[in-house]
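PROTEIN DESIGN WORKSHEET
SECTION A - STRUCTURE
LENGTH: 324
TOKENS:
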């Protein structure tokens, strides 16, 4: 927890220094003057880029010195909320970017809560980083991977998928149309979907831990679906797709992009954020399932029978594992 506290303090300091570098000093009259001159408000994208770059440096240094590569994970749900409110603030809290910022805040609250209850802020590192460290054996190669992918690329993705709010902030005088209000419901639907998926997975993981403890005591606990013995969930939303939380996550940010397209062109450079996030999730899904297939004997059958992301009908029910 001490390392986390130091990390958060340094991250905040880095963000403030990034704003200072733009000539906007928070808490002073110079900051208000900078807003009036437009050095900050008229260029919120520069502020977001500067803060993302500063956070990338902090994450890289902490990863290099602690050997823990989950520092970006710990701000994944926090930085986009900050970026969203920078855009909303730059628009003087005009309706459209403010609504979008509220949606991003709800997304951040849900993800922060889920990450915290899984021990993400208590020093628990994502298990996939340990696998990567085992595969990248040369210290210099690890350092380069930490710098280029974990720190710089991932912070760039965070900045990019919030960029549609920059487009909304660019026209602060435009009122929220009925079409915008209708479009704002789409992120909420995806948010509700991924929240349900998180809840189902959390309850399953808790049940699996209790199941294994019971087995260790020599008991034969109940397992109606066979999922506890199998080691992974195949019921609920996980019967429709193997990664329902990923589907909700991607759906949310693609919906945010569409919010930026309301009353404007569909094709816009801010689509780069949703595309980059999609690429990250495709890679993450492939890597995660490679690990799962090696760990759980029945996972290959589950993968063959169930859609990866988009909810769809299962081809065939996975075999039920048994306990000897």
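SECTION B - SEQUENCE
RESIDUE ASSIGNMENT:
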């Amino acid at each position: 927890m001490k390392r986390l506290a130091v990390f958060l303090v340094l991250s905040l300091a880095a963000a403030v220094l990034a704003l200072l570098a733009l000539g906007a000093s928070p808490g002073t009259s110079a900051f208000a003057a900078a807003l009036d001159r437009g050095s900050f408000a008229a260029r919120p994208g520069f502020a977001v880029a500067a803060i993302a770059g500063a956070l990338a440096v902090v994450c890289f240094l902490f990863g290099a010195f602690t050997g823990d590569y989950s520092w970006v994970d710990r701000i994944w749900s926090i930085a986009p909320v900050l970026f969203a409110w920078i855009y909303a603030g730059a628009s003087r809290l005009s309706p459209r970017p403010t609504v979008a910022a509220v949606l991003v805040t709800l997304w951040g609250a849900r993800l922060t809560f889920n990450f915290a209850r899984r021990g993400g802020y208590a020093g628990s590192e994502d298990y996939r980083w340990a696998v990567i460290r085992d595969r990248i054996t040369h210290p210099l190669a690890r350092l380069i991977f930490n710098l280029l992918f974990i720190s710089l690329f991932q912070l760039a993705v965070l900045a990019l998928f919030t960029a549609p709010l920059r487009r909304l902030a660019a026209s602060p005088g435009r009122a929220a149309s009925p079409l915008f209000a209708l479009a704002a419901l789409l992120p909420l639907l995806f948010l509700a979907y991924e929240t349900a998926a998180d809840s189902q997975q959390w309850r399953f993981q808790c049940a699996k831990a209790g199941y294994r403890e019971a087995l260790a005591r020599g008991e034969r606990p109940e397992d109606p679906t066979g999922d506890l013995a199998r080691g992974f969930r195949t019921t609920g939303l996980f019967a429709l797709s193997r990664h329902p939380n990923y589907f909700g996550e991607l759906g949310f940010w693609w919906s945010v992009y569409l919010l930026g397209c309301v009353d404007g062109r569909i094709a816009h450079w801010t689509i780069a954020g949703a595309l980059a996030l999609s690429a990250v999730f495709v890679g993450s899904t492939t890597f995660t399932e490679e690990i799962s297939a090696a760990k759980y004997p029945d996972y290959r059958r589950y993968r063959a029978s169930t859609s990866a992301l988009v909810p769809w009908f299962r081809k065939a029910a996975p075999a039920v594992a048994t306990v000897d």
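SECTION C - NOTES
Confidence is low (pLDDT under 50) at residues 24-39.
The radius of gyration is 22 Å.
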